[in-house]
Amino acid sequence: MSETLLEVEDLHTRFATREGTVHAVEGVSFSVDRGEIVGVVGESGSGKSVTARSLIRLEDPGYIERGSVRFDGIEMTDADDRTIRRVRGDGMAMVFQDPMETLNPVFSIGEQIVESIKVHESPEKQGLLDYLNVPLFSSRGKRSQMRQRAIDLMSEVGIPHPETRVSAYPHEFSGGMRQRAMLAIALAREPDLLVADEPTTALDVTIQAEILQRIRDLNEELDMAVLMITHDLGVVAELCDKVVVMYGGQVMEEGPVEDVLTNPKHPYTESLLGCMPQTCARGEPLNVIEGRVPSMVGEPTGCPFASRCWCSSESCTSGELPTEQVGDDHTSRCHHVEELSESMEAEQ
To answer: Fewest CB within a 10 Å sphere: which of 63, 136, 202, 288?
Structure first.
């Protein structure tokens, strides 16, 4: 039996705005086992990235109203700063969507990898070092060893000629190389869980495939769990073992990748699959989901997908959504699971 590494239960993350409280994450629950790759998929505005940031406690300026995020036995929602620093280094690491917004343009790639190693090597001392303004790259560190470790990490993630590129700056790297550099920084302390937030966005398909293959290789070599945040069902199909489908800050469907993608049990999942270019004949217009993602300001009622759903009814617009067990480890939050199944059988 697999060991659960991350368990999220009834997570609610909010943002206070002038228009009102944004319910960005609303009762999200899922788990990640050691060595497992889990995809979180949904269109823009579905709450995927806020969920990911909440796990690693980077939700500011938002806040976690209630719920549990338990990582390797540690409750992250009420952990102190020292514990969170330690978990971010040795336990959980994150690759962000846009490396140009994350990488520091005035430090070389090698220096930024070394920074990640040093910061998380002694997290209990980092607050004092920050207060005293001690340089991260001072002579107190074993600079040559750190540099070699940076070179090794760059090699691991597929950056060619790391011995020379370790001294290069972010603007000297291509988009794919910068994303690899971000991956090297995240892997500096060999985390148990890698949270990857849209790591292949804005990359061409060849580079996307290389990045995804590198993540798969690292997963197998290090037995490292991966939480892949994406809007691309192709990425989910290629890389993930399990998928969590989100919409309107809520989980709509969850289960093994093959079951969910070949036998969806929620209208939103079915609609997403119908929008894939592969489902359209050449020369025909691409399928779209009519309507817009609902506003997440204010207390949600009913199913967030109801206004865009072809099988919605009055029961969908108010009250709690039921969680239906539709297969082994496969659940759907929908009032009309049976109707959807009958419709799909009729189409086949």
So the answer is: 288
pTM value is 0.89
- How confident is the model over 94-151, as pLDDT tens digits? 998 888 888 999 999 999 998 888 776 655 555 545 544 555 555 454 678 888 999 9
Using an 8 Å Cβ cutoff, are 19 and 41 in contact? Answer: no
Q: How far is CA 324 from CA 12, 213, 239, in A?
A: 21, 34, 26
- CB 157, CB 207: distance < 8 Å: no
Cα–Cα distance, 208 to 114 (Å, whole number): 26
Number of structural domains found in the chain: 1
Range of the domain at 269: 264-347
162 within some domain: no
Note the pLDDT tens digit of each residue in 206-230. Answer: 888 888 898 999 899 989 999 999 9
> What is the residue whose two structure tokens read 């009622």?
301
User: Tokens at residue 18, please?
Assistant: 């002038």
For residue 297, the cross-strand partners are 22
326 assigned to some structural domain? yes
Tokens encoding 248: 């309107």
Q: Which phi and psi angles does 326 have, rounded to 5°? A: -110, 0
In the prediction, which pLDDT does 145 show?
84
Q: Which residue has the tokens 């009762």?
A: 27
Q: What is the pLDDT of residues 174-201, one digit of tens each?
A: 988 998 999 999 988 889 999 999 888 7
In a domain, 240, yes or no: no
DSSP states along 211-269: HHHHHHHHHHHHT-EEEEEES-HHHHHHH-SEEEEEETTEEEEEEEHHHHHHS--SHHH
Count of helices and strands (H, E) across the chain: 13, 12
